[in-house]
Every structure is written in C-alpha cells, then in structure tokens.
From TrEMBL:
Positions annotated to bind FAD: K51, D314
Record-linked InterPro entries: FAD/NAD-bd_sf, FAD/NAD-binding_dom, FAD/NAD-linked_Rdtase_dimer_sf, Pyr_nuc-diS_OxRdtase, Pyr_nucl-diS_OxRdtase_dimer
Protein name (database record): Dihydrolipoamide dehydrogenase
Sequence ranges assigned to domain Pyridine nucleotide-disulphide oxidoreductase dimerisation in this UniProt record: 350-455
Annotated GO MF terms: flavin adenine dinucleotide binding; NAD(P)H dehydrogenase (quinone) activity
Keyword NADP (UniProt): no
Superkingdom of source: Bacteria
Length: 463
C-alpha cells in the first residue's frame, strides 16, 4: 500500500526546501525525496562551492599584485588541497544547515533519500540506494529536480574522463592546462579561477564571442579582462573530435575560421549548458508534458498540464538561477497557502557573472532594446572615472544604462568591481521608478561605488 502525504516534493533544490518547510508549517503532511545531496546543486556543486574557490583565487590575485599597493611579499603559491578543503568545510556547513532544518524533530517533513519516478499522475516510487522501494501518493506534487551538465555529441568525448561542474570541484591537484568547452557562466568563472591559481587555461567556444547573449561591448570587455589574466580563447570553434591518450593528455580537433586546429591539455571541462533531470522521472506515466528538450511545461503559476502537479526551478523552461528557483517557491507558496494570485511572469531578471570584475546585469541589454524597437537612450562610463576605483586600484570595466522616453531605467550592465551590488542598487531604482534626474542628484556617501551613479546618470539628463 502506498503511503499518503498531503504534498510530495521531488528534489531538494532551491525551491523545494523552503516549500517543504512552508507547507509543513501550514499543517500539511509533507514528504521530500532527494536522490543525491540535500541542498541540491547550488549548495553542493553550483553557486556556493564555485564562489568559495573564487574567493581563494581572488586572494591569490591580491597577493600577486600587492607590490602595486606598496606592499612587499613573496610571490604567492597555491596550496590547492587547502583551497579545496576550505570549500568543502563551507559547503558541509551549508549542507548540514539544510539537513538540520528539514529533519529536525518538529519539521513536519519526512525526508526520503532515493530516486523518485512517477508511477501515475499522483503516485511516485522512491528507490533507495540499497534497491529498496517505497510507494507514495499525494494530491499535490512539486517537481524540483533541476538540471545536469549537457554533454554534446562529439566523437570520442563520451570515452574520455572529462570533467563537469561536479567533478572539477573534487580535483585534488591543480590542472596543468585546463581546456574548457563553452564560454558561458560556468566556463568563465572556472577559467579565471584556475588561471589565477596558476593553471594554463584555454576556452573553446563555438559562438564568435564569449557570453554571446550580451552586447558586443560587454563581450569584448570580458574577453579583454580574461585575456589580461592570461586566459586563452579559441572562438568560433566547432570541436569535432576528442581523444585522450594513455599519458592523460586530451586532444580536441576543432574546425575554426583559420582551418582545423588541434588543442591539447591535461584536463577537459565540459560547460556547454544544461539538460533537465527529467529523462528518468517517469513523466510519461503521469502524462506530464515537456518541450522537445525535456523541460517541463508550466503556466505562469508553475502548474503543469496535470492538475495538482507543479514544476519549480531549473526543470521548467527559462533562465536558470537560484534566485528565480527561490522565487518559484514564493509563487507556489502564495498561490496555494495564501490564496493570492502570484505569477512567475514578467519578474525582474538580475544576474551576476562572478568574475573579477563582476558582470552585473538587470533588465534589457542594448541589443534587446533595439530588437524590441524601443525609444531608448544609453549612457556608458569607464570604471576608471570612478574615484573609488582609482583609490582601490580596481579600474577595469565599464558601466552602461538604458532609459526609456520617460527617463525610467530599462536596463543596466555593470562590469565593475562590486558590479553585482551596484546593479542591485539600480534594480531598486527601477522598482521604485526613479528617473535619471533623481539618480544624478541623489546624495550618496563619498567615496563609495554608489556615488558612481551620479556621474553615470548625469550623462542621460537632458540639459
Ligand atoms: C557551477 C554552477 C554555478 C552556478 N552559480 C550560480 C550563481 O552564482 N548564481 C545563481 O543564481 N545560479 C547559479 N547557478 C545555477 C543554480 O545552481 C540553479 O539555478 C539552482 O540551483 C536551481 O535550483 P533548482 O531548485 O532548480 O534545483 P537544484 O538545486 O538543481 O536541485 C535539484 C535536486 O533534485 C534532485 N533530483 C533530481 N532528480 C531526482 C529524482 N528523480 N528523485 C529525487 N531527487 C532528484 C537532484 O539530486 C538535486 O539535488 C549555478 C549552477 C552551476 C552548475
Ligand atoms: N553566476 C551565475 O549566476 C552562474 C554561474 C554559473 C552557472 N549559472 C547558470 O548555469 C547555467 C549553465 O551554465 P553554462 O556555462 O553551462 O551554460 P551557458 O548557456 O551559460 O554557456 C554555454 C556556452 O557553451 C557554448 N557552447 C554550446 N555548445 C558548445 C560546443 N559544442 N562547443 C563549444 N561551445 C559550446 C555556448 O555558445 C555558450 O557560450 C547558466 O545558464 C546559468 O543559468 C549561473
């Protein structure tokens, strides 16, 4: 006989964990199934471990450049095992926090470790690691199973021991030469990190630019910055074959505008995007519809085509960020528990690439504003014009904002030290519908990064 719950959550991701807690607090009998690690990808093999290791790489860079600040030191050396151990300690603490919260005596949540598969529209079988199974049914089911690395069908690749975002975090030795397939978010953050630790790094990207979706000036600035760090690029490259010799060397055969190239390295990271964790979820048994890539189709309230079944986070189509997965939780919580009509449509989309400088983005890019035929004005300012940048020696990058005909901000790109935080201030200004005149005249403390907004927005104020 299946065990009955009021609500079943599949996947301990950024949406599922807070939802389980909220439903249980509201008196529902809740089960949460996780097949691997509580806390999901962000905590265990995504955002947090990468940012923890980036902090070590940034520290390394600070020491390496300390002479410019009049501080003499020995050239720094990395103790890579210690970097990884620091990251592991941080992640373990985060994971323990999630476990404690979900499993504390009065949590009201039953946590089941195992792989969930649908056996019908409202029924799921959980298979534990030891092979034992448990059947569950619930009128409300929330799918929060996230994504995994997409592996492109390149000849020879599957036969090699290439790295993904999961396995690269477990390396104990620094790669001598890291080849990175894909110049997106994951590729860029790891590229700068490993380069600063001392590895040689080559990014192989099939588009003509890194971060292809951004405006050309943004792509160029990022390329220039990573190039200055010593990261090498092969752009517009179509990798056709991968091989791995007994000495452990990888060879990528790539077709480029200059002809065929062979790229050799000691390690290979594949970071060409994600694929949804739905192929082994038994969705067909429940009749849940997906798109052609396997992402679960939902409406703006995150309901699937099967009544009572929802999909939250990266497993449905759309941008893939922790803050959006968490907001999916708010949408479902408010609609189900608070009887509000909350929608996942038209919410702001802030994001940050955690290179140094950071790339903070909110709203429309210039390309998007142009494509939408908007009547916009744009201002750009090099970061070196900012007093704080000169004082702290962080002069790289530029800032760019777009306003509409009513002087309201419609988009911003802040490629700067503290770029994510400066972008968040602009996001608040957008939410409060502040105009460029107001931002030009706002009194910010001197000398802060915030103060840069006065000069940036002054460029948009009509005389
Ligand atoms: C390297 C990397 C860095 C990132 N950095 C950032 C960042 O800086 N900022 C940001 O906003 N986003 C970042 N992201 C994206 C972010 O991690 C995701 O958007 C976020 O974690 C999405 O969470 P989720 O709730 O969809 O599910 P996830 O956190 O992916 O969790 C899904 C869970 O479901 C489990 N599961 C899957 N199938 C089953 C099944 N059949 N049965 C039981 N359990 C199952 C999985 O084991 C997993 O624990 C990063 C991603 C990666 C890979
Ligand atoms: N700081 C952050 O917020 C952060 C950090 C890491 C990851 N993430 C999330 O994780 C998602 C996945 O990251 P990602 O970097 O894997 O994907 P991505 O979509 O950001 O970038 C993938 C890149 O790989 C390229 N590519 C695709 N196929 C290729 C091939 N065969 N050969 C060479 N290049 C190829 C694409 O053109 C693209 O530039 C991101 O979209 C983002 O949502 C966010």
């Amino acid at each position: 006989m299946p065990t009955s719950y009021d609500a079943l959550i599949i996947g301990s991701g950024q949406a599922g964990n807070p939802l389980a807690t909220a439903l249980a607090k509201a008196g529902r009998k809740v089960a949460l199934v996780e097949k691997y690690l509580l806390g999901g990808s962000c905590i265990n093999y995504g955002c947090s471990p990468v940012k923890a290791m980036l902090a070590s790489a940034e520290r390394m860079h600070q020491v390496a450049t300390s002479q410019e600040y009049g501080v003499l030191s020995e050239p720094p050396a990395v103790d890579f095992k210690a970097v990884v151990a620091r990251k592991d300690t941080i992640i373990q603490e985060m994971r323990d926090g999630v476990r404690k919260n979900l499993t504390k005596e009065d949590s009201g949540i039953t946590v089941l470790m195992g792989h969930a598969t649908f056996t019908g529209p409202k029924s799921v079988r959980v298979t534990a690691l030891d092979g034992s199974t448990q059947d569950i049914k619930a009128p409300l089911i929330f799918i929060n199973t996230g994504t995994s690395s997409a592996i492109p069908p390149i000849e020879g690749l599957a036969e090699t021991h290439f790295l993904t975002n999961k396995s690269i975090l477990e390396l104990q030795e620094l790669p001598e030469h890291l080849l990175i397939l894909g110049g997106g978010y994951i590729g860029l953050e790891f590229a700068q990190m490993f380069r600063r630790f001392g590895s040689r790094v080559t990014i192989i990207e099939h588009a003509k630019n890194l971060l292809e979706r951004e405006d050309d000036d943004v792509c160029e600035a990022m390329q220039q910055q990573l190039g200055a760090d010593g990261v090498e690029f092969v752009l517009g490259a179509e990798v056709r074959r991968v091989s791995h010799n007994p000495e452990g060397e990888y060879t990528l055969t790539a077709h480029t505008a200059e002809g065929e190239r062979r790229l050799r390295g000691s390690h290979l990271l594949v970071a060409v995007g994600r694929q949804p964790n739905t192929d082994d979820l038994g969705l067909e048994a429940a009749g849940i519809e997906t798109n052609e890539k396997g992402y679960i189709l939902v409406n703006e309230r995150l309901q699937t085509n099967v009544r009572g079944v929802y999909a939250l986070g990266d497993v449905h189509p759309g941008p893939q960020f922790t803050h959006l997965a968490y907001d999916d939780y708010r949408v479902v919580r408010d609609n189900i528990l608070h009887r509000k009509r909350r929608s996942a449509k038209d919410r702001p989309l802030p994001y940050v690439v955690f290179t140094q400088p950071q790339l903070g983005r909110i709203g429309l890019s210039e390309n998007q504003a142009r494509e939408q035929g908007l009547d916009y004005r744009v201002a750009t300012m090099p970061v070196q014009y900012v007093g704080r940048a000169r004082e702290t020696g962080n002069k790289e990058g530029f800032m760019k904002v777009l306003v509409d005909e009513r002087n309201h901000i419609i988009g911003a790109t802040i490629f700067s030290e503290q770029g994510g935080e400066i972008m968040a201030m602009i996001q608040l200004a957008m939410a409060g519908k502040l105009t460029c005149d107001q931002l030009q005249n706002m009194v910010f403390a001197h000398p802060t990064w915030a103060e840069s907004l006065n000069n940036l927005f002054a460029k948009l104020v009509k005389a």
